[in-house]
Amino acid sequence: MIGNKRRISLAAGALAALACAAVGRAEAAQCGNTAAGFDAWKREFADEARGRASAASLAALMNTTYSTATISADRGQKSFRLSLDQFLAKRGGPAIVSRGRALKRSQAALFDQIEQRYGVPPGPLLAIWGMETGFGAVKGNVNTLSAVATLAYDCRRSAFFTDQLYAALTLIDRGVLNSGTRGAAHGEIGHTQFLPKNVLTYGTGGDLNNVNAALTSTANFLKAHGWRAGAGYQPGEPNFVAIQGWNAAPVYQRAIALLGKQIDGD
């Protein structure tokens, strides 16, 4: 009898949990694919987020606007389907190598410090820096919070960018971001374009618009993704897995590895 009662109790508990989950799903903020539902979604999201995000950060969220520039960029990432040679030509591979080699020499002390601490040589860091922003020349001019909120609302990758949005709200509370922060179209910021969750997880402190902070944070990211000091980083070598963690596009991964090798080979 005791065993039967316990089984009945467990079954009832499981049913209650499923019912609660169903209610939670029903009450979740509704994603959309046009600007029409964005304001309603913000209100629903803010209601769900109370207690998890501060009133100040949610007030900043309510002031965001639907970013058509973000949606356009998200739908237009055709360069990742190019061959490696085409991709490098489009991104200016030779110019990245030339500038990267010059920076490796002029900033030798910084890169030595980074390699001693994280095990990451200059080449891949400079390749990432050059590929992401042209060594800081083009960091983007899209409102960061609006970009992340737009992608959290957009149905294509809502779950991924909802996590990024919560991270962005935390960064607002910490003073790292504010309602006027601007960056790339998907919400990336700084010299090497960190998404908000990566800022929280791998940022080493300081403003990522500062070169030192951006490069040390990037090295920290690579180390956390399995980088081993002294090991190779070309496809098939141990550290290539860390480069794969940086960007999901195979052509981008191979480009970083190749440009890094050419910079380090100087």
Structural topology:
Blueprint: H1 2-27, H2 38-49, H3 55-62, H4 68-75, H5 84-91, H6 93-106, H7 108-118, H8 122-133, E1 142-143, H9 144-153, H10 158-173, E2 182-183, H11 196-202, H12 211-224, H13 240-246, H14 250-264
Antiparallel strand pairs: 1-2
Structure report:
- By secondary structure, the protein is mainly alpha-helical.
- The chain has two domains: 30 residues; 234 residues, no CATH class.
- It has 14 helices and two strands, in the order ααααααααβααβαααα.
- The chain has a two-stranded antiparallel sheet with strand order 1-2.
- The radius of gyration is 22 Å and the shape is globular.
Please state the average pLDDT score: 90
- The total count of strands amounts to 2
What is the gyration radius calculated from CA atoms? Answer: 22 Å
Helix vs. strand class? mainly alpha
Mind describing the biggest β-sheet?
2 strands, antiparallel
How many distinct helices? 14
Residues in β-strands, percent: under 5%
Q: Kindly report the spatial arrangement of strands forming the biggest sheet.
A: 1-2
Low-confidence stretches: 1-27
User: Helicity level, as a percent range?
Assistant: 55-70%
Distance between the termini: 79 Å
